[in-house]
Amino acid sequence: MTDTQELWKTKVAARLHDPAEKALVLLRDPAGHENGTSRALARLLGLYELSSGITGVENEGVLARTLLGTQIPAAMYRHVQRADWWAAAADRPQFPMDEITVDTRQGERTLAVSNWAQVNWAKAPVLIHPLTGEQLDLRESGGLMDTAIEAVKDRSLNHFSELALRVAGDATQAPDWRALLLAFWRFGPDLRVTKADTADNDKMGILWEALPADTRIPDHSIWDHLDLTSAFAGAFAGDDAGEVSLLTLSIGPVQSFIAAARSTSDLWAGSHLLSRLSWEAMRPVCERLGPDAILFPRLRGIPQVDLWLRDTMGLPDDLFAQCDWQNRATDANPLFSAALPNRFVALVPAGQARKIVELVQDSMRTWLSQLGEQVVAELLAAAGYESDPASTPVPFEQLRHQLNGFPEVHWAIIPFSLIKCRDVRKQRDLDITQLSAGMRPFFDASEGDPGFLSTAAWRVLKNDIELVDAEGRRQTFMAPNPGALYPAVYELAERVLAAAKSTRTFEQTRQEGWRCTLTGENEWLTTDREQLGWNSTYRRKQGTLWTILAQKQASWVKEGEHLSALPAIKRVWPTLFRREVERALRDVGDTRQVRRFVVSTHTMAIAHQLDRFVRSERTIPETLAKQVQQHERVALPAALARQLHSSAHPQGDLIARIPGWLEHAAELAQEPEFDHARRGLEAMFGERIETYYGLLMMDGDRMGAILAGDEDAATAITYEQSFHPRVREGFRQRALSHSLLGQYAAQARPVTPNRHMAISAALNDFSQVVARHVVEKEFMGRLIYAGGDDVLAMVPVADLLPAMLRLRYSYSGITPFGTLDRGALQTPGALVCKAGYAWLGGRLMRMMGKNATASCGAVIAHHKAPLSAVMRELRAAEKRAKNDGNRDAFSITVIKRSGGALYLTEKWGEPVNLLMDLRQFLTSEKVSRRAVYHTLAWLEENSLPLDAFDSGLAYSMLAFQLERQADRVLRQQAHELAARAIKLAQVWQGQTRVARLRNFLSVAEFLAREVRAGEEQ
């Protein structure tokens, strides 16, 4: 299709083929769901309405006359109809259909959904988690039967009508179909952007985003189905032959790009810049086909995409008024989050697929090249040089050379045309010969069909199955259309992509002279190439671009650093992106300067002491206040800043300057100055100052297997598990007399587009909303970055264990406490998780579910320890959690300032609970600080017989030592903790028990210290 407006019009028609409120009106509305708001909106927008005299797609002329007097060709209807069929087959299991009539002359059968497979969802509102099969029964919050049908329909119609009017601006003009599509895609699921009739939106409120597409299989939302239908319809309409391909594309390298860092700012910049590059890769697809063409990741609600919708696509400013990114002038603004992964999966017109890949690659590399030139110009200007390529050509030449071929782009295109339909009109009777032949080289299948094509589920699905129920009624289990083979197409795409990555070619580059001090790979940028040949004392020489910048722009470069192109871009990116956010806010009248906060390691170390000082309502002594006043305010953890603001402490400004005073003293490298500042603060706090902080890095386990739907990942549910409880029971009864049905129901569901959308939505909401809430509101931490399943955060040592645990359970949506009753939902600001879902801030968000696990590495380090070394230990800790802990585990490294380290790797659950309880016990004023020391004195490798842990001897000795160091009221707790510790040790094997128990207790004792100072200072 060459007319792009027709493409967007087709996509709008596809989005309106089912009403958003379908689940609430199905089996309740006498008019039927298809005669409700979808038809009303189609009339309002001038789209087609099928007339009673037109049957199916045989009519090659006009389907109907619209209100605007235009005529809709049959081809558009065919695209929408085929898209709906394929989307339903890709996402939903099949069901036996009752055979009502048979036209023997035409061989046509009239089929209807069986009564046992019909669900009045308003009466039995249940959501199924697509990765666990767990049921969330919404009747716990009152049910939905008292939701008035007409009120629901009116609210839905008003919502979309108002969106259309706000986008159109002038109702007399023909619709801008692209703008309509983008507005319906982005804000259709968000009732906040249009006026609500009641505070609860007629009890739709939090459920509007989660309303299921099919009440029989409530494991995916109506928005997922409309997205997928629109994606297929756009791909069909955008291809002259109506063919569609699946495109998978990834960029890299990832880890090495992020890992090159010497500060928390570097870490943020690397992850955020990579996320931005990912968006620049996806942007051409979105501009050409719409953001719903990208199945993974889900782009709805991503702030960078919102900015594109507003500034490039022209959606009205006021639609985004309630978005956080338009209302925050700090780096807590969601635009600062690294929200996007380095890969995507999209449905594209088959004839345009190669062109789209070229656009993606050009878009990304052009953007990075322009950014690089801007960075070099900024560096030169700051150092006092002429900042244009004509005057100072060398660094620009170096930049172009070093960015050549970066980032790497790998892709695979698999056309659905490998699947042939013998019955083209009904899109059935599939010939998979070409698909099977294309898959075979990538699978271990010398004979027979490979991959998904060899599964029992496909063997059941591929042919019509004739059934007769107990009452003698004939039923048909209909054969699928090509959409049902999405799992096989995706499998092939992943194998081809993996092959492309393994066979990539490398271009050898020539680098001369001194290399980048951060990466050691490329030569550092210079204004004079002769400087690259200086002798080994070059760092001490003056006059290089970097030595000048170290004096003039310390936030970009530290003394002794000389950077190549990519590290330089990462270093300047925070400044440039902050300006970009300021411009975005100025466009809506916000002229505030965006403040970017980098919380220092020392500030984090003393955060709890500052918090206790604020809560105690004490004041800073006058002599100390005069010294503190001379220093600048520094960034504080968000929770501490809120506490300082809410308390209205009379010395709030001074308190915010304390960490800066101490850091300044430390940077002077003069012990007397630092000791003076330290002693002053210790007198003010009434205790030694804390010198340790915590870093944690969490990563989802087996994410590749989860995306692929591998059964080994424990996130592949069966067909039966995805059914509504009413349907599940009916299916079981019929399977008793039809073994094929039983075999089908027991099969693990393969990967589907809905699965990818569900995973992406869960990862988006976890990283963008939940992780920040946990780290910066529930605890006194600082989120450095959160993208998908990756989280990096800095926290005070006191918050480390509970923050790790809370993040882990929130990732799965299974926090052990909290319910989704009305009371819990209405608790302001509370995060409540249940059955794989999270409720927060008026939203019901699906998380990854109980079967999706995450592993976490953590480091406790001195605030003066080099961050690069701490980060190496942190990555090693995360690796131990994945490997030594066999995933779903945590690993803690304690790096002592006085030398030595402690390492602890355990599974989540009882080990971390026991560690937290031991820490609490040991911090009590009624327990001697010597409790663990005395225990370790006898707990030596050769001091216990081999059966000590099983015979009760080890328990008796441990309980005795803990009890004798505790007050009488805590002695029972001492015995309980000893019993739990020995029970845990019994799981450990052989001679390692003693060493592991010693290590476990040592870590607990270190965590229990009020402050880690003294000899550790």
UniProtKB/TrEMBL annotation:
Keyword annotations from UniProtKB, A to Z: Antiviral defense, Nucleotide-binding
CRISPR-associated protein Cmr2 N-terminal domain segment(s): 246-371
Any Pfam family: Cmr2_N
NCBIfam families, alphabetized: cas_TM1794_Cmr2 (TIGR02577)
Keyword Nucleotide-binding: yes
Name of the protein this chain belongs to: Type III-B CRISPR-associated protein Cas10/Cmr2
Gene: cas10
Keyword match Nucleotide-binding: yes
Residue span(s) of domain Cas10/Cmr2 second palm: 692-890
